[in-house]
Amino acid sequence: MPFLWILIGLVVGVGAAAAFFITREKNAERSIANAEEQAKQIVNDAIKSAESKKREALVEAKEEIHKRRSEYEREEKSRRSELQKQERRLQQKEETLDRKTDAVEKKSEALSSKIAAAEAQQAEIGQIKKSQLEMLERISGFSVEEAKAFIIASVRDDVTHEMAIKIKEIETQAKDEADERARKIITTAIQRCAADHTSEITVSVVPLPNDEMKGRIIGREGRNIRSIETLTGCDLIIDDTPEAITVSSFDPVRREVARLALEKLIADGRIHPARIEEMVAKAQKEVNATIKAEGERAVFETNIHGLHPELVKLLGRMRYRTSYGQNVLNHSIEVSHIAGLLAAELGADVATAKRAGLLHDIGKAIDHEVEGSHVSIGVDIARKYHESDAVIHAIEAHHNDVEPQTIVACLVQAADAISAARPGARRENIENYVKRLEKLEEVSKSFPGIASSYAIQAGREIRIMVEPDKVSEDQMVLLARDIAKKIEEELTYPGQIKVHMLRETKVVDYAK
After folding, report:
1. Phi/psi at 247 (nearest 5 deg)?
2. C-alpha R_g of the chain
């Protein structure tokens, strides 16, 4: 029984399975059929879509071709139009060129005919001129060369007269405009800078209470005078001059130390080597203190700041230095003030001008100790203590050792000349003075037509007499100018020299 049931179950199960598989197969067949239909539908749709796109692409291509063709046709039309315009312009230019060529040819022919006519007229004019010249020579009695010489002489006299008048006018105008301004500036500078002028040069005289003091100063076997000369480096000149001893030295500081030491010894009365050594040491301290004080005074008076202490000491040493009798320190202070005032009037750098003016002769403080001119020594000192290039150049150029390149250098030159040239500021060697006057007269007499010349006013004026038959009044103006230029070129002198020229005509006759 159970087996039957099992068998029945198996049969049923097999039947069910067979039915399941049969159903499944049918479903699969239907699915395949549906899939095939869908595939066919898709293929058909794809074919339709492709044909549609192909038609669209063809339409677009045709439109693009039509568009390009239209653009090309427009461009081609434009080019043809432009070419036609250019052809028309070229044609017009050719026509214009032909017309101009024709006109040039006509003008050339006309010009040739005019040239021929002009040459004919020129020849005719030459003949007429020749005949007129011959007629003029017969009428005037002059040849052509003689007439030319006469006309040139007349013109030269007229030109000389006009040139002399013009020179006078220009000089008068320049003086009217410049003299007053320059005189005002320089006079103001000089008036505001009055200073002492002269002092001793290379010797100092020490007064004695009596002549017996000379023996005491000399000492036993000359030991005192030898001690003084050894300690001070100066020479003592004891001669027949009553109640005086002369101290001589090229070094003004040493000379001042010796003078002070002698005055102290004379006042003290005790004169022996030990005392001499003590007094010389005291005098040296006093002189050093004076040097420092004088340097500070110079800096204070000129209101210059930032000077190196050694420069201040060197300025103080110039208190004992003279040049042609003029105290160099006072001269430097004066130059500083004048240069500063001139710079202020001209709108230049006042501080630099005053500084350069104060230091321009700084080399004279040690020019007896160092080889070289005071200019080169001063330049080295200024460089050593780091002065500015403008100050160094002004020092170097103040005697024209180099050409002045700045306005400050020119102002220092002018201030130095003003201070040195002022009457009484300097003493000049009589021999050099006489030579300069002789040279001045010699230069004046070197020109033709000069009868005589005389240097007057201490060489500040040269008075010249001209021969009236050789030098006219108009020529005097030019001659005076030439003489002044030659004096400037050949002579060295302070200030200025006036060229005063005189012409006098005398006529003598007798009544009988």
Report:
1. -105, 125
2. 58
3-state helix, strand, coil in the chain (%, to 5): 70, 5, 20
Q: Structure pTM?
A: 0.47
Token pair listed for 314 = 């060197």
Give backbone dihedrals phi and psi of 370, rounded to 5 degrees, phi first.
-120, 140
Cα–Cα distance, 34 to 273 (Å, whole number): 155
Distance CA 363, CA 382 (A): 9
The model's pLDDT over 309-366, given as tens digits with 9 standing for 90+, comes to 888 888 888 887 777 667 788 888 888 888 888 888 888 888 898 998 888 888 888 8
**Cβ neighbours of residue 263 closer than 8 Å, sequence gap 6 or more:** 206
Q: Judge whether 316 and 291 are in contact, CB under 8 Å.
A: yes
Helix (H) or strand (E) holding 375: helix 374-384
Q: In this structure, which amino acid lies at residue 439?
A: K
User: What H or E segment, with its residue span, contains residue 137?
Assistant: helix 2-140
Could you give the CA distance from residue 493 to residue 481 in angstroms, rounded to a whole number?
Answer: 18
Q: Residue by residue, what is the 3-state secondary structure of 301-360?
A: HHCCCCCCHHHHHHHHHHHHCEECCEEHHHHHHHHHHHHHHHHHHHCCCHHHHHHHHHHC
